[in-house]
Design brief:
The structure is a single chain. By secondary structure, the chain is mostly helical. The chain is built from ten helices and no strands. It has one domain. Helix 2 runs parallel beside helix 8.
């Protein structure tokens, strides 16, 4: 790797600091890793679980893990993901007002627990999707595959490998998981360790999303026939999408992705500049 390319690598540190400050203010925004290790199920287990739920007409358990099982450092974030969010609780006036016609229908009312479970599953799936998008960009950054417009002066396609970098977020998570040591620099770590870790996490995210989609479909099969056309699905999606806490998370993750793209563009211009072989005085 060309060492000169790292000369201005901290140029966006103020933007990164602003994002860290924003994340701390919202408590859960700066936690970028969802720990599913105690919940991973095989595809056979997922299908068997959902078949059993269909036969028994019982709601799936989607709010798992007690406080005692939650790491103290991740408490706010796991409460946000696993517990019933305030805006979907039985006491939420906005929730009841939004779905008043479905809950109070004279002929075919929807069971409150079913409706709440559908919203919670959509809430969790939305968070999983945001993590999936962010970590796909982390992987692309590490492989030098972020698709950005490159300077015309950039001479050789092989130079694209020089644009690769592993975001500090990924390194921090791997250190916290005990996968790498705190005193290891990225240059000394086998790149396959990063790639395997991220790909494994993306696999976990996909499996968790698939589990929630199966649970969602299971519940919708027992809704009154009036709601078989999918209208209730669109209404739930719209309600979840406009929730303030999820909007904040979405915007925060989008800015994190934008920061990765800015760094990639910056590195490409640095590389194009150093290809011109500037003198020490020009540098």
């Amino acid at each position: 790797m060309t060492t000169n390319i790292l000369l201005f690598d901290d140029i966006f540190h103020e933007l990164n600091d602003d994002l860290d400050t924003e994340g701390n203010e919202w408590h859960y925004l700066n936690n970028f890793y969802l720990n599913f290790e105690d919940e991973i199920q095989t595809d056979e287990e997922l299908n068997r679980s959902n078949t059993s739920q269909q036969q028994q007409h019982q709601s799936p358990i989607v709010v798992s893990r007690s406080k005692k099982e939650i790491n103290k450092n991740d408490d706010d974030h796991h409460r946000f993901f696993y517990n019933i969010p305030d805006y979907l609780s039985a006491s939420s006036s906005s929730f009841r007002a939004t779905f008043f016609s479905e809950l109070r229908s004279i002929y075919n009312p929807i069971d409150f627990q079913d409706l709440q479970q559908l919203n919670i599953l959509t809430h969790q799936t939305t968070i999983i999707y945001l993590h999936d998008q962010l970590w796909h960009h982390f992987l692309q950054a590490g492989k030098g595959q972020l698709k950005q417009p490159l300077p015309q002066l950039l001479q050789h396609p092989t130079d694209l490998t020089t644009l690769s970098f592993w975001p500090k977020i990924v390194t921090s998570v791997m250190i916290s998981k005990g996968i790498i040591q705190h005193d290891n620099s990225q240059d000394k770590i086998n790149q396959d360790i990063y790639i395997n870790f991220i790909q494994n996490y993306l696999h976990q995210l996909e499996k968790q999303a698939r589990q929630r989609r199966l649970q969602f479909d299971t519940i919708t099969t027992r809704l009154p026939s009036d709601y078989a056309n999918g209208i209730i699905n669109d209404k739930i999606e719209h309600f979840i999408r406009n929730e303030d806490s999820l909007s904040a998370l979405r915007l925060h993750f989008e800015r994190r992705i934008a920061l990765l793209e800015y760094i990639c563009i910056d590195r490409s211009y640095q590389l194009a500049y150093f290809q011109q072989k500037p003198t020490n005085l020009q540098v």
